[in-house]
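Researcher: Please translate sequence to structure tokens.
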Amino acid sequence: MPIVRRSEQKKLTLEEFYKELIPKPEDQIGDGGTPMLEVLESINTMFKETVLYGLTSHASLLLFNNDHEDSDYYIVINAFKSSYYGEYRIEYVIPDNEIPWKGATVNGGSRTLAEFEKMIIISMYKSGGWKNNIEVENLY
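Model: Translation complete:
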């Protein structure tokens, strides 16, 4: 499985965590779980050898290239849908040698999963978190 939850949050898998965010039919809230499960499935389909590590922060998924507690994330993913609206959102850090100021990021969104999959690959490549990764370079 290419995407796994980092060691410091091993109580639930990422899939178990996002299943808990799927509203019940009687709930009057939007769905943050189902679209995030779609994102996890897409990542697991796109990447066969590259392991991505995820931490959850509220409903956000932070992506890392390692399982070390003191490391920084490279990408943040959010997804949400309601009966009126649905969107996948992504943000990635700009590498230190390219940043115009400390903490600068690039963010964007898509209403389709197919387009969002491309945004994930671009974010992995452009963030510099997966440098010299053949699988990422081939997908890019």
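Researcher: Any highlights?
Model: Residues 64 and 104 are 17 Å apart (CA to CA).
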